[in-house]
Amino acid sequence: MPQDAHPFRSVLYMPGSRPRALEKARTLAADALILDLEDAVAPAEKPNARELVAEAVEAGGYGKRKLLVRVNGFDTEWGEADIARASAAQPDAILLPKVESAADIARAALLMADAGAGEHVRIWAMMETPRGALNALAIAESHPRLEGFVLGTNDLVKDLGAAHTPDRLPLVTSLGLCLLGARAAGLVCVDGVYNAFQDAEGLRAACVQGRDMGFDGKTLIHPDQIAIANEVFAPSTDAVALARRQVEAFEQATARGEGVAVVDGRIVENLHVVTAKRLIERAETIAALESAA
Ligand SMILES: CC(C)(COP(=O)(O)OP(=O)(O)OC[C@H]1O[C@@H](n2cnc3c(N)ncnc32)[C@H](O)[C@@H]1OP(=O)(O)O)[C@@H](O)C(=O)NCCC(=O)NCCSC(=O)C[C@H](O)C(=O)O
Ligand SMILES: [Mg+2]
What we know:
Blueprint: E1 10-15, H1 19-24, E2 32-36, H2 46-59, E3 66-70, H3 79-89, E4 93-96, H4 102-114, E5 122-127, H5 130-134, H6 136-140, E6 146-151, H7 153-160, H8 172-185, E7 188-191, H9 200-213, E8 217-220, H10 226-233, H11 237-255, E9 261-263, E10 266-268, H12 270-292
């Protein structure tokens, strides 16, 4: 996560065709919401969902939650009209499905500009195909509107012919390529969903794995998943306390003219201090967000 940026610990999808979910989301503790026009919406409902989502964005009331509208792909009859209507509603971002190249981002950016999307309306890319993962760096570096990647692990599993396994070993290469591209370009990177939405322990394990790989947060499909993602992706009290001690010990070492400190039997060098400061800043950003909610 870029420093002092908005957190994306919990990013909740909701079908754009469900007015009750769009309403309920105004009270949920998610850091960001994906108002979905793509896979969660049946073909017959798409035009109606487009309007419902645009009206929800225009009505506001979502507080500090970031609002992303996931549109349909360019290969569908709805994609371009979704981008035009969503752009006019001015959400925080438009999320493009199945991005495979820099050209996909450029095409969306042009449509958004034509439809009057303000400069503040960012682009996010679903990374969920083999070609997309292989092109991750070129996509990540392609456009100033691009702010983040969302991993689409269901589509990746489908296209790879892989299996959903608890350790996610079949996905590690794809996840890693997308993380590398995002980090090299300074983008936010959010992990895929955990489908068994009533399995809290399975979700927790998946969040811990995603956090340890470097993801900023997890996409979610049910409100009951929010608290776990918020907890796992926030720095713990112990981690913040350790980071503060590392910063302090390193400052004292520097004052003595030394380049290395030792905390709890481990060395602390300048690079560890960078990580520690980033963690403290992230904790402070989250605390400020939660106290404003
Ligand atoms: C999975 C669900 C279909 C379950 O829905 P439901 O049976 O209604 O759940 P509950 O009765 O437990 O709901 C309790 C209350 O919470 C509200 N609710 C439920 N889900 C959401 C939500 N996602 N956002 C907001 N609010 C939600 C209900 O309205 C109930 O409220 P109340 O009336 O006040 O009691 C459902 O959760 C669902 O549809 N989830 C989203 C599914 C989805 O968006 N899928 C597409 C995204 S996943 C994907 O595509 C990933 C990617 O592309 C890939 O390739 O991997
Ligand atoms: Mg998908």
